[in-house]
């Protein structure tokens, strides 16, 4: 022992003064960058490419994270502390460099160090490939929660797949979306640490064999069709100015034997390498689908693969802690981020019963204690269900386990509700109404001790609609945890000037304790000088965004116009096309009276459409077609501009939210589970125009109804309209402005005379309009007019903007994570995290 510590001491004195691996002065950082450039990238400054420099800087930052990482890691193995295991098919973490610099508190020094090397930190930051391991809100929420878990000093591991290709990159050609493969790993990933010694085997396919063991107990052996091996890759997740570093552990799939010698010797080269190809396909690409997921075996294998590796890993860690398997829930609280990882319920049962020989009742008790499920959607088409034959072919043992869970569960239902066959059919884990399916939401709910929705309205609708019967059965399991977002990435990092302004007035504790501290800027809404500084920050951010827009799209925008922004996945329920209907209405007003006074506006859209979602792609084309006509119209004279910002992702979002003045949250009431973009906009001083949907309801309550532009039907009114029989054509017939707009789109006015192009969209609106655009049209247009009016009074607008930010404390993801800790995980955030003393 003594010898080892002596050796360690010797090593630490290799450098005199500050260590160039850990020192944070400008001189140390500069030296470290040069060393890393030479020793890791194998380059000298003269030969270095921009990526070489980026890598050298990134490694320099990583070196400074490692001592904390190793300390936290040791804690995971040795302490008694419960660990949150966040199982999610997606983690949209965004670029790491800027965030890690901020969390370490060395952004300024690093800026100085790279400057001495004739480099610009902002250019290096732009150079980072974004890990696009998510589609939208659900994946980004997981990333915000990882940030808050670390900053609240809660031990956590985020588990997922290490997709080789993330969400596609979107390009716009001739106004249409083109998908390009996202090769985010191709230039190397300096943030991950591979752990070749941590791997697990995962079975796929085949059949089961039932037998009695030597004690006469019933046992099942799974003889798989093939086996895939999962290797761990760890990305450290830093806390903000704290010691805690958590882990994002991603599993890479590989073949058990990458080369089949038997087959090779038999002369079958193809077969010899085929297994490798099949195994590696498992984690190749993130599914971009927003469509029903049935029929996609690979997606089920992907889900099962990361879940199985993760559960095996948790058991390993628990056993390393020197504990028995029966106490597993003392070490882990597992959160299922939607149904995608819900196979975890059956897999944990399999591991406990088949591999650890536990009896069923005990295993079921442990499973229920550990698992909790978050629902993120009410849309029936998005509720995951797997066709029985596909499921049985892929996971034969899990099907047996699910049957057994179902048998016991339905017995309980029958006992409590004798004679109610309808209820039994509705609650069953198997949908037998036609072709048979496994209902993954039911599996998740039955096997969890808590089920939560993501906003107050969504949680209420969840128990009134899709999970009504389950709620009647287990009312105590249901809770609400309204989503939140991290103020670190979404204000401190992406809007540094606003952050500096706030800090100058109230100190910097708001960054750690946004919930309580940010309200301190509220009185400053009455301070004219502060309002002026506030206005200047926004103006600068707009001007910066205008430059980026011009560079990426060629469109020149006016930073003095109102920046009205809608960025999110493109979906009919989010109603980007309602926004377009209003734009055309404003355009028509100008055409009729070119001299009229209007508030100049720049409408900015961004978002990806699922590649197979025809209508969403057509909406992108519509936005670009309308932009083409309006942007060059002489009568408009630049007073309206329409921009489609390509490839909306975390990196671009960091430029967009800080420049927004109006946030479009205009989904059909009852459809958006929560929304989190709404929170990011508000935190950056944008005012919201929105429906009473998702978290908009709570945002409005917090910021005050006088600081929120409300329009549209409520969720109840939407349902009533549909019950009464909804006839969109009546709105078209009775509203001449709406009729004119629809007729223009239909006639080819915005599509160079092509009357076919938007026909499907127009027909859909006139005949079905499932998301009630026409019903909400007039209310939306009127509300937009009141926005214009409010904007004319800049003093009033700035006051509203400041109040919006001041009252956003509740929407920090720190608050959400505290609620998960209290009501779901039974964890007390350890001292040292979160709220400043
Ligand atoms: C989103 N869901 C909700 N799903 O739509 C949004 O209201 C909520 O704020 C957010 O979750 C976080 O709770 C969402 O983003 C997806 O991206 C699916 C992932 C799997 C494929 C289909 C889309």
UniProtKB/TrEMBL annotation:
Pfam families: Phosphorylase. It comes from Candidatus Brocadia sapporoensis. Its EC number is 2.4.1.1. PROSITE patterns: PHOSPHORYLASE (PS00102). Its cofactor is pyridoxal 5'-phosphate. It is an enzyme of class 2 (transferase). InterPro entries: Glycg_phsphrylas, Glyco_trans_35, Pyridoxal_P_attach_site. It catalyses: [(1->4)-alpha-D-glucosyl](n) + phosphate = [(1->4)-alpha-D-glucosyl](n-1) + alpha-D-glucose 1-phosphate. This is Alpha-1,4 glucan phosphorylase. Keywords: Carbohydrate metabolism, Glycogen metabolism, Glycosyltransferase, Phosphoprotein, Pyridoxal phosphate, Transferase.
């Amino acid at each position: 022992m003594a010898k080892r510590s002596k050796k360690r001491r010797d090593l630490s004195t290799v450098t005199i003064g500050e260590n160039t691996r850990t020192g944070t002065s400008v001189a140390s950082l500069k030296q470290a960058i040069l060393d890393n450039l030479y020793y890791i990238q194998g380059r000298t400054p003269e030969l270095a490419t921009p990526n070489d420099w980026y890598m050298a800087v990134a490694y320099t930052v990583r070196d400074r994270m490692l001592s904390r990482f190793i300390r936290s890691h040791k804690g995971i193995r040795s302490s008694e502390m419960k660990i949150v295991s966040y199982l999610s098919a997606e983690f949209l973490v965004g670029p790491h460099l800027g965030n890690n610099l901020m969390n370490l508190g060395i952004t300024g020094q690093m800026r100085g160090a790279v400057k001495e090397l004739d480099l610009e930190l902002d250019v290096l930051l732009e150079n980072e490939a974004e890990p696009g391991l998510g589609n939208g809100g659900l994946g980004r929420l997981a990333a915000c929660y990882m940030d808050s878990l670390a900053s609240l000093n809660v031990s956590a591991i985020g588990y997922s797949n290490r997709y080789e290709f993330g969400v596609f990159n979107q390009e716009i050609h001739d106004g249409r979306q083109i998908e390009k493969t996202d090769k985010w790993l191709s230039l190397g990933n300096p943030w991950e640490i591979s752990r070749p010694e941590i791997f697990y085997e995962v079975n796929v396919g085949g059949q089961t064999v039932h037998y009695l063991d030597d004690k006469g107990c019933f046992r099942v052996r799974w003889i798989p069709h093939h086996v895939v091996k999962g290797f761990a890759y760890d990305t450290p997740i830093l806390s903000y100015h704290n010691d805690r570093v958590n882990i994002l552990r991603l599993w890479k799939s590989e073949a058990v034997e990458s080369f089949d010698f038997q087959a090779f010797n038999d002369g079958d080269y193809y077969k010899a390498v085929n297994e490798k190809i099949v195994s590696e396909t498992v984690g190749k690409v993130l599914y971009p689908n927003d469509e029903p997921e049935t029929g996609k075996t690979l997606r089920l294998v992907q889900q099962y693969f990361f879940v199985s590796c993760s559960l095996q890993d948790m058991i390993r860690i628990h056993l390393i802690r020197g504990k028995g398997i029966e106490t597993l829930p003392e070490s882990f609280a597992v959160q299922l981020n939607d149904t995608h990882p819900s196979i975890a319920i059956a897999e944990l049962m399999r591991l406990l019963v088949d591999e650890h020989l536990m009896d069923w009742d005990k295993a079921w008790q442990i499973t229920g204690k550990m698992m909790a499920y978050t629902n993120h959607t009410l849309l029936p088409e998005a509720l995951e269900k797997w066709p029985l034959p596909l499921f049985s072919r892929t996971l034969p043992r899990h099907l047996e386990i699910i049957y057994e869970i179902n048998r016991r569960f339905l017995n309980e239902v029958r006992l409590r509700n004798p004679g109610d066959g309808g209820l039994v059919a509705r609650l069953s884990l198997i949908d037998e109404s036609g072709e048979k399916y496994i209902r993954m939401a039911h599996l998740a709910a039955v096997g969890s001790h808590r089920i939560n929705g993501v906003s107050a309205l969504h949680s209420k609708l969840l128990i009134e609609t899709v999970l009504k019967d389950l709620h009647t059965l287990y009312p105590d399991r249901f809770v609400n945890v309204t989503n939140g977002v991290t103020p670190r990435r979404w204000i401190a990092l992406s809007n540094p000037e606003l952050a500096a302004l706030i800090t100058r007035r109230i100190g910097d504790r708001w960054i750690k304790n946004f919930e309580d501290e940010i309200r301190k800027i509220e009185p400053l809404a009455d301070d004219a000088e502060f309002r002026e500084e506030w206005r200047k920050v926004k103006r600068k951010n707009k001007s910066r965004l205008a430059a980026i827009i011009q560079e990426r799209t060629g469109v020149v925008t006016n930073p003095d116009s109102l920046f009205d922004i809608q960025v999110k996945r493109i979906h009919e329920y989010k109603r980007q096309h309602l926004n377009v209907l209003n734009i055309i209405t404003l355009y028509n007003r100008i055409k009729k009276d070119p001299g009229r006074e209007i508030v100049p506006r720049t409408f900015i859209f961004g978002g990806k459409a699922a590649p197979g979602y025809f209508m969403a792609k057509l909406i992108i084309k519509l936005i670009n077609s309308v932009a083409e006509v309006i942007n060059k119209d002489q009568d408009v004279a630049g007073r309206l501009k329409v921009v489609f910002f390509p490839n909306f992702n975390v990196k671009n979002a960091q430029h967009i939210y800080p420049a927004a003045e109006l946030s479009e949250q205009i989904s059909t009431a009852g459809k958006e589970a929560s929304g989190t973009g709404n929170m990011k906009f508000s935190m950056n001083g944008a005012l919201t125009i929105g429906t009473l949907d998702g978290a908009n309801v709570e945002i409005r309550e917090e910021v005050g109804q006088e600081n929120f532009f409300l329009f549209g039907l409520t969720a109840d009114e939407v349902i009533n309209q549909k019950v009464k029989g909804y006839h969109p054509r009546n709105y078209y017939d009775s509203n001449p402005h709406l009729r004119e707009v629809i007729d223009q789109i239909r006639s080819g006015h915005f599509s160079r005379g092509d009357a076919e192009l938007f026909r499907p969209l127009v027909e859909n609106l006139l005949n079905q309009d499932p998301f009630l655009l026409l019903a909400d049209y007039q209310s939306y247009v009127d509300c937009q007019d009141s926005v214009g009016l409010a904007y004319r009074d800049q003093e009033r607008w700035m006051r509203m903007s400041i109040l919006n930010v001041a009252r956003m404390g509740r929407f920090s993801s720190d608050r959400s994570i505290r609620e998960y800790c209290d009501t779901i995980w039974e964890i007390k955030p350890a001292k040292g995290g979160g709220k400043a003393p």
